[in-house]
Design a protein that fits this description.
Radius of gyration of chain B: 19 Å
Distance between the termini of chain A: 41 Å
Largest sheet of chain B: 5 strands, antiparallel
CATH superfamily of chain B: Aminohydrolase, N-terminal nucleophile (Ntn) domain
Helix content of chain B: 25-40%
Strand content of chain A: 15-25%
Radius of gyration of chain A: 22 Å
Order of helices and strands of chain A: HEHEHEEEEHEHHH
Shape of chain B: globular
Oligomer: heterodimer
Largest sheet of chain A: 4 strands, mixed
Largest interface: A-B, 14 and 25 residues
Number of domains of chain B: 1
Structural class of chain A: alpha/beta
Strand order of the largest sheet of chain A: 2-5-7-6
Number of helices of chain A: 7
CATH class of chain B: Alpha Beta
Helix content of chain A: 25-40%
Distance between the termini of chain B: 62 Å
Number of helices of chain B: 6
Strand content of chain B: 15-25%
Order of helices and strands of chain B: HEEEEHHEEEEHHEEH
CATH architecture of chain B: 4-Layer Sandwich
Chain lengths: ~260, ~250
Amino acid sequence: MATFFGEVLSVYSRAVEEDDDDLDDENEDERIHREIEEKREVHIVWCPEVAQSLEDSGSNKLQCSDLIIAVGTNAAGFLSAYVLNTESWDAVGHVSLWNERSRGSSRQSIAPLPGEPACLFYRHRDNPAVFGCLQKRGLSVMVLSDSPVAEYKTPDYLYGSAVPFLRSLKSSASKGQALCPALEQPNILTGLPAAVLSHCQVHQIPAVLYQCYTDVISPDSITMETFKPALLCLSKLVKLEPCLSADVLRKFAIITEAQSNLYT
Amino acid sequence: MAARYDRAITVFSPDGHLFQVEYAQEAVKKGSTAVGIRGKDIVVLGVEKKSVAKLQEERTVRKICALDEHVCMAFAGLTADARIVINRARVECQSHRLTVEDPVTVEYITRHIATLKQRYTQSNGRRPFGISALIVGFDYDGTPRLYQTDPSGTYHAWKANAIGRSAKTVREFLEKNYTDEAIATDNEAIKLAIKALLEVVQSGGKNIDLAVIRRNQPLKLLESKEIETLVAEIEKEKEDEAEKKKQKKST
């Protein structure tokens, strides 16, 4: 196959495979895969009072009116810094998981450390309905996620000043205007935000997703500020920190040392 | 879309792009801002100082480098690439002095740097230099010069220009404010460079480095005290302007 110097292309043969000797090896691979698959686990741990109210409610469901999910370092940093920092939120539980791609810790009772694949649930102290567990009625969901701008496909050239920017997607049950343009084709979402939105679409739960495209790799305060308009519609229920002190921002926006010497 | 055409530098995309070169220009935008101004008897280079780590020696983090006694340059982009380009340019300056017995003209050394950069956009297995440079100096006939090069290997002469992170904003400021009166004296030219940088630099004068070359004088790096004095002058002028405008409105 014609290619440039240094590129190696694997060429696929269209010949039918006739040799049977590979079967055993394949079986072994399959066996190993299956064993690892069985080891996959997801653990949900609730704090005692929530566990109690779960038992009391009988149906193992929790009251929830609004669920905010943040996926990605910048989105999670934004939520931590601007919302959860106002000190009226309690951590009520966590989900930790283990599968062959993302190996979490095997300790289940201790809250997961940052950097481990996990999910923390927070509940607003004054308004315990704002948080969530998946209950179908009366629930509205907002997902915040971030993504590198290199994956944003557009026919126009993106000038540096436009980045970071927000795009939105809504489930058909969601009424009302989103606060930023909708995600244009052929861009797609993947991963957890896509799964949440699909679930909401199928079960007719109003959901809106805000995706922020940014050009920095690490959590960064400017990117986090881009999410601010997303919480305006929840401002009655959720109090936003109007302006952050530098210390708080520094906690969440980690400046990687390696980057700072690369460019001058 | 661009995925198949950006792995090898020597491959054009169907619509005529050399993506690696364009990506190198994005790398330049990650460097901090540098501005160059060509005055009548002076050339000025101003840069936004990078924040240094606590234990780092500040003097070793320099964006402005002398290439010869009468030529200096400021760069934006990858630090390591800049070091290589500067070393080659310095060697070329001395080699020119020895063989031709004349100091280089600013255009000659700029052309040398630009040719070097272009060679790396056409070789197999190498990536382009990720820096843009502003090269200033005086030719031996006394004319001040300012040139800018970019990763593709092009170079142009400018009256004033900016490279790096917020180059667009600074350039727009310069387009509005670069007039003959603005560069009438040496001091005015230096103040114009500082004003242009203050548009995009946070926390004012202590994050600015300035270098000037005057005709028949070697490169001079301004001390932070001098820069602070000039910044204070600029602030005072701004306040006086604002006062005058207020008075005009009230009368």
